[in-house]
Design a protein that fits this description.
The protein is mostly beta strands. The chain has a single domain, classed as Beta Barrel (Porin), CATH 2.40.160.10. The chain is about 5% helix and about 50% strand. It is built from three helices and 17 strands. A 16-stranded antiparallel beta barrel has the order 2-3-4-5-6-7-8-9-10-11-12-13-14-15-16-17. The protein is globular, with a radius of gyration of 21 Å.
Length: about 375
C-alpha cells in the first residue's frame, strides 16, 4: 500500500553537514558535486480508534496505532542514474520497504530495478500518505499488498512491494507502467512463474504530476482541472493453490479521479474504482487466500474555501462494496473530515465507519468505529 515522499523536503542532521562540509540547497538536498546529491526525509501516520464491541469483554475498545513510520533516502549519481531507499514498520519491527536503482533518461522511457511498488490501481499506487480518505484500503488488494493482511510472511510481496523491474513513462497525456516481479514464490509456484503487472492511464484534462508512476487521490486544487481514467492488471501462473494442485491468479481494476477547483476557492474531488479478481477454482485452497469476485468503491470530497486557523477543512464520504464469488457480500461507509494544514505533509483526520468490509474482501465483523489520525511528512 505505500508511496514515498521523493519530492518532499529533507531532514538534514547538522552534525552530518559539519562533517561533510557539503553545501545545502533550498530544497534540503546535500550536494556532493555538480551531479551527485543525497536527501533524507521521514513520514509518520498514527491514530486512535474506538470500536463498539471491540474489547475482549464485548465493550467498546480504544486502540492507539502507529500505522506507518518511514525513513526516506534518495540520491543521484549522474543526471540519469538515481536511487531510492525506504523503511517501514513491519510486523512490529522495521525493515526495507523500497530499494530501487532508477534509470531516468527522460519523460518517455525510464527503468526501475529492485524492490518497488508493483503497478496497480490508484489506491495502491497512492500509498497511505497520498489518499483522499483515511481508510482507503477496504476493497480487496492485489497479491503483493494482500499478503500482509493474510500473514503469509512476505511470499507474495509486502506493502504492495515486490522485487522486480518496471518500465514507465508518458507520451503527452498517456502514462504507463509495466513490470515483471517475483510474485507469489512459495511452494505452490513450482514453475517459478513471475508476476506481470501493468497500469495505463489517460489524463483527459490536466496531466497529473507525481514522482515516477505513483498517484494521488487529491491535489487540493493545486493540480487544476483533473479527469483521469486508468486500467491496471496483474497475472501470475501458479500464483495460487498448493504445490500439488496449483492455479493462476488474474485481476484488473478500472479507476477514475475527477478534481475541479471552483470560483471562491473550494475544490470538488470525486474518486471511484471497480475491481475484479479471479483465481483458478480448480486449484486447492492455500493458506495464502486470495479474493475471487468483484468490488467497488466511490468517494466524494469538498475542500472548503478559506482557512480556519492554520488549515482548511475537507469533508468526505466513501462507500465500499465487496462481492465474492462464494461467501457473503460486505460493505462499509466512511464519513470523515480532513484538516489540511500543509497538503499531504501535515493533516489531521476524524472519521466514522460503519460496516463489515475490509481489505481481504471477506465479510468481517459488522462494527461502528471512530478514528482520529495524524499524518506528518518532511
Amino acid at each position: 500500500m505505500q508511496k514515498k515522499n521523493v519530492i518532499g523536503k529533507s531532514l538534514i542532521v547538522g552534525s552530518l553537514l559539519a562533517a561533510t562540509g557539503a553545501p545545502v540547497l533550498a530544497a534540503g538536498k546535500i550536494v556532493i558535486d555538480d551531479t551527485r546529491w543525497i536527501s533524507v526525509g521521514a513520514g509518520i501516520r498514527t491514530s486512535i480508534a474506538s470500536a463498539d464491541n471491540g474489547a475482549p469483554d464485548g465493550g467498546r475498545s480504544s486502540d492507539f496505532t502507529l500505522e506507518n513510520m518511514r525513513l526516506y533516502i534518495s540520491g543521484q549519481v549522474t543526471d540519469d542514474f538515481k536511487f531510492y531507499f525506504g523503511t517501514e514498520k513491519m510486523w512490529g519491527e522495521y525493515g526495507v520497504l523500497d530499494a530501487i536503482v532508477q534509470y531516468e533518461p527522460g519523460e518517455v522511457f525510464n527503468v526501475w530495478v529492485g524492490r518497488m511498488l508493483t503497478p496497480a490501481d490508484r489506491i495502491e499506487m497512492n500509498g497511505p500518505f497520498y489518499g483522499l480518505t483515511w481508510g482507503q484500503y477496504t476493497v480487496p488488494l492485489y497479491p503483493s499488498d494482500n499478503d500482509v493482511s493474510n500473514g503469509a510472511d512476505g511470499v507474495a510481496g509486502t506493502f504492495a512491494r515486490d522485487e522486480g523491474a518496471t518500465i514507465w513513462g508518458s507520451l503527452n497525456k498517456f502514462q504507463y507502467a509495466i513490470g515483471v516481479f517475483d510474485g507469489y514464490s512459495a511452494a505452490e509456484n513450482q514453475s517459478d512463474a513471475p508476476l506481470y503487472a501493468a497500469r495505463l492511464a489517460f489524463n483527459f484534462l490536466n496531466k497529473e504530476a507525481n514522482p515516477g508512476y505513483y498517484t494521488s487521490s487529491t491535489y487540493f486544487g493545486k493540480g487544476g482541472d483533473i479527469l483521469t481514467l486508468a486500467i491496471s492488471g496483474q497475472y501470475q501462473d501458479d500464483g495460487y493453490g498448493t504445490a500439488a494442485q496449483s492455479g493462476s491468479f488474474s485481476g484488473y481494476a478500472i479507476d477514475g479521479l475527477f478534481e475541479k477547483p471552483l470560483e471562491g476557492g473550494g475544490v470538488v474531488t470525486l474518486e471511484g474504482e471497480y475491481k475484479s479478481f479471479e483465481v483458478d477454482t480448480n486449484a486447492a485452497v492455500p493458506v495464502f487466500s486470495m479474493f475471487d469476485g468483484d468490488a467497488y468503491f466511490a468517494s466524494a470530497a469538498f475542500l472548503m474555501p478559506g482557512n480556519v486557523g492554520p488549515g482548511r477543512y475537507q469533508p468526505y464520504v466513501r462507500y465500499t462494496s465487496n462481492d465474492p464469488s462464494s461467501g457473503e457480500s460486505s460493505s462499509l461507509t466512511e464519513l470523515g473530515v480532513n484538516y489540511i494544514i500543509s497538503g499531504h505533509n501535515l493533516k489531521l483526520n476524524l472519521n466514522a465507519t460503519s460496516g463489515d468490509a475490509n481489505a481481504s474482501g471477506a465479510k468481517g465483523k459488522d462494527t461502528d468505529t471512530v478514528t482520529f489520525g495524524v499524518q506528518f511528512q518532511i
